Amino acid sequence: MSPDAVIVGTGPNGLAAGVTLARAGLSVALYEARDTIGGGLRTEALFDSDIPHDICAAVHPMALASPFFREFELTQRGVQMLHSPASYAHPLPHGAAGIAYRDLDATCAGLGIDGPRWRSLMQPLLDHSDGIVSLLLSGHRALLRDPIAPLLLARDVLGHGTRLSAARFATQQARALLTGVAAHAVGRLPSLASAAVAMLLGHLAHGSGWPVVGGGSARIADALAAEITARGGTFHTGHLVSDLAELPRTTAVLLDVSPKTLARITAGRLPTAYERALTRYRYGPGAAKADFLVTEPIPWADSTVGQATTVHLGGTQAHMIRTETATAAGILTDEPFVLVVDPAIADPGRARPDKRPIWAYAHVPNGDTTDPVELISARIEQYAPGFRDTVIAGRGIPAAAYETYNPNYVGGDIGTGAMTIRQSLLRPAPRLNPYRVPIPGVYLSSAATPPGPGVHGMSGYYAACAALRREFGIPVPPPLGPEPPTADRSRSRRLL
Questions:
Q1: Lowest mean pLDDT segment, chosen from 16-30, 145-159, 463-477
Q2: What is the pLDDT of residue 485?
Q3: How confident is the model at residue 142 (pLDDT cuts 50, 70, 90)?
Q4: Residue 333 confidence class, pLDDT cut points 50, 70, 90
Q5: Cβ neighbours of residue 496 under 8 Å, at least 6 residues apart?
Q6: Which ranges in 243-284 belong to alpha helices (H)?
Q7: Alpha helices, DSSP H only, in 96-206?
Q8: pLDDT over 90, % of the chain
Q9: Measured between alpha carbons, how far is 79 from 75 in angstroms, rounded to an integer?
Q10: What mean pLDDT is reported for the chain?
Q11: Between vectors from CA 306 to CA 302 and to CA 307, what angle results, nearest 5°?
């Protein structure tokens, strides 16, 4: 029996689409090229069978803030979201580190004369957090829930998205603390797009937080997959889809793929203008990933950094502006921005005596082939002398090889497309409905559609809602919260 819908790709967006369609009562089949599902939500024992390592995403502010996951209720499905005392830290070459605690008061106290300035930036965003998240994760199609939110964002993005941002804070700690979050946009600094990322992730650090998942990120994928299978969905792993013709006959096809893969598997079917737009789609700098097995927590020179699971190694604001802009221009620097995660700080169960995982990536030019182990080790050693002595084993994935691991990461671009203002608003091409591919019944459900990258599931959710309306005549999205599946899956039942 043919499924009602087929999904290609089982990253967070593909799985979110699968949950949405299955909850609407549709039969769903999901296809995955690798032997395990999850996309960016995979966890493996790389060096020791007792030590889980997150292969892609490791820290999940969006999984707590996302409207999809808030309704899905991860914690009610057995997924533990665990926090360290500080959401993130930013050590500096000389002087004290900047520490972003979940407690805004503690953060402001540590920033001295910049404490009141930090509060004046973050407190209004926290007061309107639901509106800020709703606006930035809306896919740019929903009605405003909070009319103050866009005004706040406009003010702060304009204030921190240009070279004038250097004058917003007096201390190196505060400047670096915010710029390190902006660097999550993985592109030129400063920019309006990176400032929007800084406002979103920055205020969440003092709100719902930047948690890790107890036992590893794959637990999120497992919870989504369990919901799909409980409602009759099926998974086909180890199946690389090379052409739409390989798929079973179905009413709707949702593709959690990059524009590059979309163009390949739909060859000869797309209108010329749309296909041309896909070829012009820009990809951002790459991420070069390194995993380490170490004997002890990272020996940070500033011990307060050890309160944070996530650490940004970017140096001063001026240094980050130089290196991130050079990287975006295709220039590999000796001291790139490095993001380091010691998950066992928040999740002690991931460590064993004298063994714990360390996760890290460096920003490098798209398609770069440099093995990142030494590059990242040297960067950590700058801020944590003696780190190399704690390393038992290490493994690197160059940016170019990341695409082999996950085809959505073109050239190592883990955001599935450069984060510019234009591409944030018009991903992957200018269309009234960015999720509809101009082939009957086909939809794009990846991070190449609004709202873009992050483990939030919203791109998959919006694509599924579009398919429900147009292909199945179901105008109202289904509820997503935990509840037992109904025995009656008939079409007439769904339309009631």
A1: 145-159
A2: 65
A3: low
A4: very high
A5: none
A6: 259-265, 272-280
A7: 104-110, 115-127, 129-136, 148-160, 172-182, 192-204
A8: 90
A9: 5
A10: 94
A11: 120
Tokens standing for residue 117: 């300035």
The string of pLDDT tens digits covering residues 360-371 is: 999 999 999 999
Interval 84-107: pLDDT, tens: 999 999 999 988 999 999 999 999
pLDDT class of 451 with cuts at 50, 70, 90: very high
Integer Cα distance of 421 and 130 in angstroms: 22
CA dist 202 and 131 (Å) reads 15
Closest by Cα among 126, 143, 145 to 200:
126
Q: Find the helix or strand (DSSP H, E) in which 362 lies.
A: strand 356-364
For the chain, the first-to-last Cα distance in angstroms comes to 24
| Tokens encoding 419 | 């984060």
CA distances in angstroms from 372 to 89, 147, 320, 334, 412, listed in the order given: 22, 45, 18, 11, 12
Q: pLDDT category, 143, cuts 50, 70, 90?
A: low
Calculate ∠ Cα 190-195-201, nearest 5°: 135
Cβ 265 vs Cβ 408: under 8 Å: no
Beta bridge pairs of residue 5: 28, 252
What's the distance, CA 233 to chain centroid?
A: 25
Residue 496: pLDDT band by 50, 70, 90 thresholds?
Answer: very low
Distance (Å, whole) CA 156 – CA 276:
35
- Is a pLDDT exceeding 70 seen at residue 397? yes
d(CA 266, CA 243): 6
pLDDT at 219 over 50: yes
- Are 218 and 63 in contact, with CB atoms under 8 Å apart? no
How many CA atoms within 13 Å lie on the side-chain side of 26? Answer: 31
Mean pLDDT across 259-271:
94
In 3D space, the residue among 399, 419, 420 whose CA is nearest the CA of residue 410 turns out to be 399
Angle CA(228)–CA(234)–CA(239) in degrees, nearest 5?
A: 125
Q: Is the pLDDT of residue 489 over 50?
A: no
CA angle 140, 144, 149 (to 5 degrees): 95
What does the alpha-carbon distance between residue 496 and residue 493 come to, in Å, rounded to a whole number?
6
pLDDT of residue 490: 38
Helices 115-127 & 172-182, crossing angle to 10 degrees?
30
Q: From the CB of residue 124, how many other CB atoms can be counted at a distance below 10 Å?
A: 18
Residue 210 sits at the vertex; the CA angle it makes with 334 and 64, to the nearest 5 degrees, is 135
Contacts by residues 135-144 (CB-CB < 8 Å, ≥ 24 positions apart): 136/196, 136/200, 136/451, 137/62, 137/65, 137/66, 137/67, 137/451, 137/456, 137/458, 138/450, 138/451, 139/434, 139/449, 139/450, 139/451, 139/458, 139/459, 139/462, 140/425, 140/450, 140/451, 141/450, 141/462
Instruction: Say if residues 169 and 108 touch (Cβ distance below 8 Å).
Output: no
Cα–Cα distance measured from residue 246 to residue 240, given in angstroms and rounded to the nearest whole number: 10
